Amino acid sequence: MRKLLSILLLLSAVSPAIAQVTGVDGAPIDTSRIYGERKDSLDAAVFQSRQSGNYLSKGKDIRTEVISAAGLCKLACCSLAESFENSASVTVGYSDAVTGARQIRLLGLSGSYTQMLDETRPVMRGILAPFGLSYVPGSWMESIQIAKGATSVVNGLESITGAINVEHRKPTDEKPLFINGSVMNDTKMDLNVISSVQLSDSWSTVVLGHVSGNTMAMDENGDGFVDDPKQLQFNISNRWLYQSPSGTAVRFGVKAVKDSRMGGQMMSSSPDAWMSDIHNTLVGGYLKVGKPVGEEGSVALVADYTEQKTESSFGRTTYDAAQRSAYVNLLYQNEIAEVHKFTVGISGIADLYDENLSKFVVLFDTPDDFFPNTNAYAFSGATTVANGGAYGEYTFHPDERFSIIAGLRGDWYRGEGFKPVPRLTLRYSPSESFTLRANAGRGLRASVPVSDNIGILSTNKVINGHLDEHVLEDAWIGGGNVTWYFGGSSSDYLSLDFFHTEFMEQQNVFHHPGVITVGNLSDIDGGRSFTDNIQADLALEPFTRFTVNTTFRYTLAKMSVDGLGLIERPMTSRYKGVLNVQYATNLNKWIFDATASLNGPCSVYPFMRELTDAEGRLLYPDGKTPAYPLLYLQVTKRMKGLDIYAGCENLNAFRQRNVIIADPSSMHFDASQIWGPIMGAKFYAGFRFTIWKTEK
Question: What span, in angstroms and rounded, lies between the C-alpha atoms of 92 and 102?
């Protein structure tokens, strides 16, 4: 820990940073003026408490769902991974039954196809991806924006299904001190301390600290494996803002994380018990600089550097990896008569991976002669994955009714050559109550097979294929959205959208009995991989301080598999429905929240159709998981400077049965086939304490 803090202090002395460059909707943001005026944060908090926690932004060119500060307070929300329960757009689940790693799905595809942004900087990439969602504490966030489809080329090419942008608490917040603490009945505790300080008219800073963990290992389902790993996480960040009278804005910051988690058969006294032991460390810094040029122009520089290291074991499998990532983006933007806007720039990103994998596999079950029939799949070495190029984006915005954004990038990929990427966004509002949106484009990303499929380490299966090949995945996506606003209100609306994603190249991992195949879509003659996604959202405020938000999503996802043809993509939920209601008393002294969701069935892998429970009954007789409901409740009492809240997650206590397949000594052992909650009802209580800045 001393070494970690030393690195943090060193980085804080030398790291630089920025003004924001572009929103996830693709519209350029004036980097020279965005920090010129900021509303008092108390006023902002009052405003947000009157709006829905989840809402569709009326002014965005791309269909963008916003989870506001009020929405982040509706649930326990200990981290970014737990912030999407009120959204049907994003589904969050566990990668496996032992590590606690979380993964998201957007438009029916893994979160690896969703570009994660920290105030428009690409983050949570590579080996950080399986655990990165838990490294953004809920109290650190100001809002979350979920944009579907091909977003701005300014931010890169990795937004295949969309982009999720996280806005952090700002140095200019009028909160010298904010403390948030919570505890759950499974002994998980969470503490956040945040302080924003205005040092002068030009300088301000915010310090964010976080510690969380649980002290007990629990096995509610009695399968011999702990339901949630024992965990301890330390997380600290320091962000700075400098604003010069000339309009130049500079943001810079540093962050450090240390995370340890231990799971598996911790209840067992056997020395051969199957255990998972994971240690992650992360340090990073960023720089953003925005400077006005002329009357309407501005130039900006964005830079980011991160080092991530993981040391882990899964039974007898070991995976040690390190990643160094560097990102830089230099751009210029201007506008002509407020009608024509353009952005041009160059950017690049490089990832250096150093991976060492020794995966324990069992060639066949031999109970009497086990050890001679074991083997390992292994690889070791360093790999560099990099791309860079130039881009241009033009926005035509003649009036409030119509806009068009056309973007084009040309990037050179190491080992792949030059790749052009066009993207187009249209928005038309013939009236205040009606808006049409459409966008289409290409997306590219280099796969990171182990971290993209971290659950395969929690199996004894043989690997057929290559986990050390970073395949350049290639997809086209297109879709649209129509929104009706009722009574001229931006908070009462009905919205419908459809998106189609078609892969030209994709790396797929498929589970068979005792074997996992890793293959490329291009190796299958006539192979296809696509998803269709339909969603409807309805938001209403029937009477004052009572809001209703309901949404329903349907997904059809298919992929080609050798020997099976075109099949439904396994472990992908067909549909999800969410209903959230909130009532607040006068002056918001009491706030009552209830969320109910219905999670649809998903197809299982063919080998899972033969699985049985303890009584010999088939677990998935029709080849699908069951649909299941989830219920969340929370009540908040608000006082001057203090909120006290209590609630329950998964109040109906639904749990997936038989999350562990076979014994750890078997070739069929598999703890990665997770489609539902592992733990039952989780009760929690917490507080939010705020000291507001007083006028001198």
Answer: 7
Q: Is the pLDDT of residue 643 over 50?
A: yes
Radius of gyration of the chain (CA): 25
Max CA pair span of the chain:
81
Distant-in-sequence contacts of 202-206, Cβ < 8 A, 24+ apart: 202/242, 202/243, 202/244, 202/245, 203/240, 203/241, 203/242, 204/171, 204/172, 204/240, 204/241, 205/171, 205/238, 205/239, 205/240, 205/241, 206/168, 206/169, 206/170, 206/171, 206/173, 206/238, 206/239
Q: What's the full length of the chain, in residues?
A: 696
Domains and CATH numbers, the chain: 2-691 (2.40.170.20)
Residues 162-215: pLDDT tens digits? 999 999 999 998 889 999 999 999 899 999 999 999 999 999 999 999 999 998
pLDDT of residue 489: 75
DSSP 450: H
CA distances (Å), 363 to each of 276, 414, 461, 667, in order?
21, 36, 8, 7
Q: List CB contacts of 549: < 8 A, sequence separation 6 or more.
A: 52, 53, 54, 55, 86, 537, 538, 539, 540, 578, 579, 580, 581
Nearest-angstrom CA–CA distance, 379 and 278: 19
In this predicted structure, the answer to whether residue 440 has a pLDDT above a threshold of 70 is yes
d(CA 380, CA 357): 6
Nearest to 405 by CA among 397, 394, 390: 394
C-alpha distances in angstroms, 420 versus 95, 414, 444, 473? 33, 14, 10, 14
What is the dihedral sign for C-alpha 601, 603, 604, 607?
positive
Q: Which two tokens stand for residue 217?
A: 């290992």
Is the pTM above the cut of 0.85? yes
**Closest Cα to residue 695, out of 198, 278, 226?**
198
| The token pair that represents 173 in the structure block | 């917040």
Rounded to the nearest angstrom, the gap between the alpha carbon of residue 450 and the centroid of all alpha carbons in its chain is 18
Backbone angles phi, psi at 249, to 5 degrees: -125, 135
> Kind of pairing, strands 515-520 and 462-464?
parallel
pLDDT of residue 131: 92
Beta strands in 265-339 (DSSP E): 275-293, 297-314, 317-336
Find the mean pLDDT for residues 512-536.
94
Kindly report, residue by residue over 591-627, the tens digit of the pLDDT.
Answer: 999 999 999 999 999 999 999 988 889 999 999 999 9
* Angle 587-171-196 from CA coordinates, rounded to 5°: 65
CA–CA gap between residue 588 and residue 373 (Å, rounded): 65
Label residue 26 exposed, middle or buried (CB < 10 Å: 0-12, 13-18, 19+).
buried
